[in-house]
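Extended Data, panel c. Modelled sequence:
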Amino acid sequence: MNEATLIIIAIPLLLVVAVILIYNSIVGRYNAVDRAWASVLTQERQKNKIIPHVEKMVEQYKLHEASVLTEVTKLRNAISELGQGGVDAAKLALTEKHTAGLLQGLKVAVEAYPDLKASDTYLKVMAEISEQQEQVGAAIRIFNRNVEEFNNGIQMFPGSLVNAMLNRKQPINSFTDAEAQAGFDYKPNL
């Protein structure tokens, strides 16, 4: 075999290897997004373990105020719906909204019942809710980073070419918070 024949064989072979590597990279990034979404769901469901303590606390202090109990119920329902239908940043945003509503209701309850502030149960539940919110925030940041890497992989050349021909994956929306965005005057022109 002469050099020309080796070059003619090597170029298509290298091209095939490159396509396989890019294809596998897209699949790997997609799986990373899926895993990150599962972590977000896990953290949200972890909050669900706190809800019975909140309900007990509400009953214990006879705070049958409809808004607190309603927010507890909404949060429980929103968390249970998160895992249905794959990655859904909109459902996550709704769940976070319900969490904020619950926390606001608890703050109002504390103002109405000052002795609740001193309750060891209240302090533990509030600390656990805060910790869970921090964990959810961390999981969302990881999820968004994986979404960015995946979207870059399918939208940048040569990944976009391989994706269009073989994978046919669609870009995934990252998690955004409409309430947080409303607090900023600046809006990027994305």
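The helical segments are 3-48, 51-60, 66-82, 89-112, 120-155, 159-167, 178-182. This feature is highlighted in the accompanying rendering.
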